[in-house]
Amino acid sequence: VEKEVIQYLSELVSIPSLSSDISMKPEVIKVTELVKSKLIELEAEVKIVENEVDGKNPILLAKIGNNINKKTILFYSHMDVQPALKDDGWDTDPFILTPKDDGYLYGRGTNDDKGPIVATYFAIKKLLEKGDLPVNIAFLYEGEEESASGGFEETVSKHYDYFGKIDGVLVLDTSWFTDEKPSLDYGFRGISYNSIEITGPKKDQHSGLVGGIIREPMTDLVNIFSKLIDLEGRVLIDGFYDDVLPFTDKEAKLYENLEFSIDELRSNIGVTELISSDPKQIMLNMWRYPALSIHGIEGAFYGQGGKTVVPGTVKGKVSMRLVPNQDPDKIAALFKEYVEKEFFKLNSPNKLHVKNLGNGDWWYGDLNNFLFQAGKKSIIDYWGIEPDFARSGGSIPIIPFMEKIFNAPAMGLGVGQSSDGAHSQNERIRVKNLIGAIEVIKNTLTNCS
Ligand SMILES: [Zn+2]
User: Fold this and answer.
1) How far is CA 311 from the centre of its chain?
2) Any idea what DSSP says for residue 81?
3) CA of 193 to the centre of ligand 1 (A)
């Protein structure tokens, strides 16, 4: 099996299926066709549907089995990958799967998500070889995840009844929380992304002319930035924390067994200290509490040297990661209201325009449901160890979307390890993880039947 696994993965990796680059669209189509042909080998019924948003990549829908007495489990993964160039600092060609002596396979997409797609394929293949499938299987594979899943909701909303009843959604798009222990994921944060545009002079000026005689838009913007968050990371927007659920004792138990090294994280990020030296507090801040980040300023001088330009218009970019039960739309409205209030206090003649650039829901799964029970048992049986139950500080808004549209719970099943470098140089996956994932997926399907 190992040889076949590596063969399929190397075919997938050899196709640079970038969703970020419209000129690579044929490659995404090619990878979609390859996945389709492999699923047909499993006697799946496969349908590739056009994306409802113009220019976005198609979505693959497939199903195996239609026994109404069995549950139906839907697999979600994405076939597109992040960009990668050898020059970015890869040791090998990112689009040639390269096995190394360390037990890892290197290449773009090995961890995210081509490895998981391969593991799913072989898990089902093995079940079919044994006889009847314990559950009906459905597949929902997209080609836009690395570009914010463009058109996913619109397209799935149109075609979801292709699947009939869905009982559970397995999301294969995460990694283990550590390198040592498998994990099951039950949460992601939501996001609200906003811009703050401040306009003064109708075009850029020179500080030799306007310095000292006008209120500069950049100065106003920096003032606003300073009012958003304090030095301890507390968001200062009025009402921001109102809907954050209180932390319970039951929840605290979930953090007790997590092995997490603050020093390792610190050195991975490359900072001398984190906002707290308490590992539990850091995990809570990453997963369970909201945060605000300032990302950039559009329109400002950012080149080398000492240019004396005074930008006429600047646009600050700010995002907030959100948690249960914060409503992204409500938070965006609070943000706007607060920035307008603080700008008013500046008593500036400049013009302010606050705009929401996009929101995404958080996801919070139920650890007591049948998926988590089946996943946990399968991991204990194969790896001989209890999985970590993990959340992530990132956002996958399509998970709560799928839960809603299919009226079924979801679970994240990690395949690769935390140090695989999913979006980074020298992305990899351990052969041991791929083989393990095949068994765990297989047994999870059996255990949830
Ligand atoms: Zn991914």
Assistant:
1) 34
2) B
3) 20
| CA 378/CA 442 separation, integer angstroms | 9
The alpha carbon of 146 and the centre of ligand 1 are apart by a number of angstroms equal to 7
How buried is residue 393: exposed, middle or buried, by Cβ count under 10 Å (0-12/13-18/19+)?
middle
For residue 114, how far is its CA from the centre of ligand 1 (angstroms)? 9
Could you give the CA distance from residue 400 to residue 407 in angstroms, rounded to a whole number?
10
pLDDT for 237 equals 98
Residue count of the chain, please give it.
Answer: 449
pLDDT of residue 368: 94
Ligand 1 centroid to Cα of residue 81, in Å, is: 8
List C-alpha distances in Å: 324 to 283, 294, 352, 383, 406. 16, 22, 30, 32, 21
Q: What is the pLDDT of residues 108-134, one digit of tens each?
A: 999 999 999 999 999 999 999 999 899
Which residues have CB under 8 Å from 296's CB, separation 6+?
Answer: 316, 317
- pLDDT tens, 14-37? 999 999 999 999 999 999 999 999
Cite the active site residues.
80, 145
Centre of ligand 1 to C-alpha 46, Å, is: 22
Report the DSSP pairing between strands 291-298 and 309-310.
unpaired
Give the Cα separation of 10 and 30 in Å (integer): 14
Q: If you measure from the C-alpha of residue 82 to the centroid of ligand 1, how many angstroms do you get, rounded to a whole number?
A: 9
pLDDT, tens digit, 9 for 90 and up, residues 363-418: 999 999 999 999 999 999 999 999 999 999 999 999 999 999 999 999 999 999 99
Separation in Å, CA 80 to CA 22, 112, 424:
12, 9, 15
Question: What is the pTM assigned to this prediction?
Answer: 0.91
In order of 50, 150, 405, the CA distances from 58 in angstroms are: 5, 10, 19
Residue 214 structure tokens:
């006008």
